[in-house]
Specification:
single chain, alpha+beta, 3 helices, three-stranded antiparallel β-sheet
Length: 126
Amino acid sequence: MSSGVALRLRTLQRHLGSPEGRGMEPGSSPLTTHVLDTASGLPAQGLWLRLSRLEDHGQQWTELRKSYTDPDGRCPGLLLPGQMKVGTYKLSFDTEGYWQKRGQESFYPSFSPSRMRPTSSTCRCC
């Protein structure tokens, strides 16, 4: 087995055996993300991201949090329990910065998946 394949396999086994890989624990953040670098087959560690919520009847995005993904490609604690409220949320990922750190060019400077709209303060989305 090549060393690259072995590394990906160990990473996957470690991920599946971790509490983070089994799902959200009670009392954890109501909003999570998990980013994988499909070019390497590994978690995207160190990817800068921004969480925003649409305010003022759809007129203004309010930044709630800036953070980086951890070694597992996750960003725990985006929102504290009780902070989630009904509304429209957006995660924006700095893909250009991520690829520049790796000495590569990025086709897209940033990425924002579809907006998230929880329907209650206890909604588990994403």
